[in-house]
Amino acid sequence: MNNQIKTIVVIAAAVLLIALLGVLAAIGLVVPVKTVQTAEAVSTGISSIDLTKDIVDQIFPGSEYKIEDGMIYFSSQIEANYQTLYLEQMRFGKYVDSNDEYLAVIRAPEEVTVHAGGFYYAVAAVFDGKTNKIKSPIQHFINDEAEISVLDGKRHDYILYLGSTTYQGWTEAQGMLYDLSSGQWEKAWPVKDDMWKDRHGVFGNNRLVLYKRVIEQHNQESAIPPNHFELDTELIWDSNAETFREPQPWE
Prior knowledge:
The chain is built from three helices and 14 strands. With 251 residues, it is α+β, with helices and mostly antiparallel strands. The chain has a domain at 34-143. Strand 3 and strand 4 form a beta hairpin.
């Protein structure tokens, strides 16, 4: 009897919690989290393989390829001399002018990349979620390390790209927030082009953590002095203002 009572109590508590979350979401106190969408979630009635083909045919028109186990094998080398790619992510959102859009990112697997072609090689574009037709120019990303994130905005979504390249111990980083509302990949941030001089950043949980380069003491002459990065500052993404800003003490 005690076990039955415990079970009833647990079920009742779960029902109350679900109802409470629904009320909070309705009044705007709980914001649904945007997740990576599968192919089936983006386009109803079409398989993931067929959807991948639609994307590849528009990004690499005229290419011959086959799809096996999620990998895209081209019959000949494509850009950056790569022959094997895969669909890394699809993010549903509003980028250009409709809520029925998704960002598709196709990249080379880490195990086949080479420094000359960029250890991180990816191409990205925005597609119509109903017709699967491309809606933006194709953007190329080539670096040693990189990450592509989608940031929610009040009017539409933004795409944040952070990348870095290291040569003989010296790392150069770059970062760009893209606004595609015009149908083009336009830079929305940073305002100053030299922001990334001797800096690199890491993004997560709507926060951009910036690190600055520190030159280490050394006695020998070197074209590339010993160096490392230390914590510099932190910025928070403000979805209402659609820009990065310094966090408030309570954030």
